[in-house]
Amino acid sequence: MVMKMARQHRASGRRAAGLAGSGLLAAGVTGALYVAGRLHTPDYTFALFGQVGLGAVALKALLASIVLAGAAVQVVLALWIYHKLPVAGHPPRPVRPAHRILGLAVFTLTVPIAVHCLIAYGVQLTSPRVAVHSLAGCFFYGAFTAKVLLVHSRRLPGWALPAAGGTLAILTAVLWYTSALWYYNGYQLPGL
Question: The pTM is what?
């Protein structure tokens, strides 16, 4: 009995250390992006796939909309994997690999958007919309780092991975709202 309690205590300590480590690394990525973006001198002429100015903004809005749609599908797939949808039985075998492949594709689409944002604009805090967008972008890559670490760990609490995935989905929606929707709505945020 005492040995079992000691093993459970050690396992609990490892879980806490794993969560703390994932959180610290995520915070490090977020902080590094924030500092790099604040120290960087914006280059407003930086091109995204040859597009400069409004062409780049339109292309980024399109890519961001594709990312948002992919994130929505990711949420549905994750809910299916965790048996949170009103569907009887286990999800078919292709659901888990589809979730991983789509996640990689969605993340890959975020990279050119983020690179353009970082080089062309840096991290700016000039208005509430821009500040929220800049900070959410930094947090997005920190949350992604945490999710990648959590997905490879079998010892962490069951809530950790869905929390990281949910955070990514929320940040994706915030980033889309403060950029693509702003662009599509004539450079205004609805409701504000």
Answer: 0.88
